[in-house]
Amino acid sequence: MKDQTLYLERPSFWTEERDPECWRRGIKALAELEEKNGIIRGTPRSLWEHSLKQVMSRRSILGLFGMSHESDRTFLLGVGFLEYDFEQKGWRLTEFAKPLLADDLEDREALTSLGITLLQRSPWIRLLVTRLLRGDWALSGWRSLRKGRGKLTAGASLRLHHFTEEADWFSGIETLCAQAWLPEETATDRAIAKSTDLVTPHPDPLPSRGEGKIKDQTFGNQSFGNHYKIRLHPQVLTRDSRRDDFSWAPFKAPLYLFDYLGWLVEDGDLRLPVEILREASLESGPKAQLEPGARLRRIMAREADLRGFVPVEKALRKLYEEIHPGQSVSPEEFVGWMDALMSCALKKGAIEILAAEPGQARHGRGLFGDRQRKLAKWIVHDDFNGCLAELEGGFMKAEPEKQHTADDV
Q1: Which of 10, 108, 173, 214 makes the best surface tag, with the fewest CB within 10 Å?
Q2: Are 174 and 167 in contact (CB under 8 A)?
Q3: 364 to each of 311, 314, 315, 372, how far by Cα in Å?
Q4: Same domain for 339 and 273?
Q5: Where is 130: in which H helix or E strand?
Q6: How many domains does the chain have?
Q7: What does pTM read for this prediction?
Q8: How far is Cα 351 from Cα 340, in angstroms, rounded to an integer?
Q9: What value does the CA radius of gyration of the chain take, rounded to a whole number of Å?
């Protein structure tokens, strides 16, 4: 059977990070246009030029639109506050856009509604949030990034530990990320979802990119086959010779919104309430609870300096505090725990130490008490989870420190 593909436009949100109300103003202006003309006709660019230039920037408007149908291509432009009406040959505001139009809506209530809509309907946001929740990716230096004018960039403020290549970003989570653009759930699907700990979206396929005339495709309510994938549209990066690369910079705006709503804490950790996760049909079960290896990688992303070196004791102490929240531990007990954990991890190859340095007094105790190894650049593999499981189960003791020499570095 031919593969089905949901093609995506570049991620597009509001360009002034601290002004999410920009989209709400744009939706209100479009609602007035629809009320006046009965339909909203035009392309995103022409609508901006004639109706929205005084309300929002040109780069902000694309994210308001849903599926685009243009001759030989069909792909998702944005979140989908606007959907195309084939009979009237124009755009209409969707039902979920209308609550944002209420005049008596408090600012925080409106922004919460906007945040939930992003989580529900944007495959790009669902991708980022899912990877962050699973520990595959991590935000680094969010506190300083939030205060400054810097951009979100992969490898610096966004660390991609796994699924680093564009072709792999959506690997294994295509259905989860495209949940809003799939057919509605059947009773059987809902029964299956209830039997699991995860909120499971419908497994049916995505609409395909048309090859000529579009036939019987009413996106969101039909089946289109059993095999699908999500890809950035192949023409997106070559359409503008001045912009021939993918940028993560637009994501800073919705992240800033999540920060304002309390869903993103200062160190860059997502703290989405369970009720919000459920409303957005995102993971709220075991997979959303990070494994120890993923937790440590996330801590590393926050604590590493520009060269990638991490204070060993500080990183492991934060890991201990995450695993045992609110539990006090004596310095001696923590040292024993830390040495036992690192002993197992090095022995099994669950942690690879690439380099180490002395550091300063504020960096605490070094690896196995070695002052020359207070800072380390290391790689954490998923085997690390087994080491912690053994340690927490009381099955191991620390190896003598003398067995861990410079050869381990």
Answers
A1: 108
A2: no
A3: 8, 7, 10, 11
A4: no
A5: helix 123-134
A6: 2
A7: 0.66
A8: 13
A9: 24
